[in-house]
Write a structure and sequence with these properties.
4-stranded antiparallel beta sheet; 7 strands; alpha+beta; 2 domains; 440 residues; DNA polymerase, domain 1
Amino acid sequence: MISLNIICIVDLPTCYQHSHMTMTSLSKDRHNPKEMRTLGRGFPETLKLFRIPASRYWYVGMYIKGRGFVRKSTRCEVISDARDVAADWYEEKITERRHHKETGGLSFSIYAEKAMDTRKRETRRGNVVPEMLEEEQRKLNRDILPAIGDLPVTKVDYNLVDNFIDQLIGERDLSASSLKKYVILIRQVLKEAEREGVILGVPSLPSIKSADNPRPWFTPDQYKRLLAACRELRDEPPTSGVGSGATGREGFDFDELYDFIVFMIHTFLRPSEWKHLQHKHIRVMDTNGIKQLVLSVPNAKTKRSKGSIDSTSTEIAADIYLNKIIKRNDDPNAYIFFNHLKQRDRWAIDKVGKAFRLVCEKAKLGTDAYGQKHTTYSLRHSALCFQILKTGGSDLLALAKNARTSTDMLEKFYLSHLTPQMPEFSQSLITTQALKIAET
């Protein structure tokens, strides 16, 4: 069992729905067709030219049996130029439809449907979360299938996908991570075709490079300010807004949030992992008189083939768990944090996240030095950074295994960004014991 002793920390605790619907509505309005035009004689009435508020270009679209309304940007701002592109696009669709019949239905859209059926089976087995499946289906329906759905799957190659990605970049300001998801999704469809023997192998596809941004974390001094702000909210709860208990608002226990912050710092939990953690998933380990916790994370992001993944906490997590957390509710099936909150996958995360943001704002720590927003994930990032600072980056393998991640991730997102600061912080931690002061 891995035993961690994180940065000489001693803790002595002092005993979405409406906004989501509005954002979704606004997003739909930006992509709804406006200024619909037909092309006139010689073209079907279902063939339309139109604009959308989200783009300066004219779009062409047409109802296709079994596909619904398929559309594509003409990349033209002038209507006369857009008409020429629309006419060519229509001829391409007629040719593709004829070829589709001749090839017996070997279109990309056919294998996209099969790939989604495979993903649904993986979702039922618990290998894919439903939210990811929904996102993949949206990307297919909205962007990928209108662009390449009617093409034979054998014609989808590097250049075709590269042009598709280039068009996405031109039309929408998508991040590198979002563009990667499109390429991965196209690869999944091609993999489905490969399994059925329609193509001999998945062709090389464009790679999307992105900068490795440092993870937003709290420095030891910022961690001290964060805990101080939480104590203030615990002693003097807000009278309006989030957690106030005012009319239309539910009160929030900032004392429990304080314990949550300290516990997360000393256990390396991800925000997605604490929500299902129950008392039955925790046992106390005694090593030479020092108590630590062993957590069997029930829904770890990186699961082994069998069972859960165990990890060891610092002695501080054991102290706050035994002296405060378990005393709130010691039922083995009770959730260790905010047990009263139902709908753990969504509502609990959202509510705790908003309360945590309030603490960050009170501590004037809304964003980090790079302008990235602090969230509850910043607590995990801080836990990893604190341990790296304490050890100087030694024994990353033990840290990675205990935190359920990889040494590559630590080196890529944590170690490389912290190296210049290590001498300064290591010296500071030895002489001032910053975190010991923070948590007393």
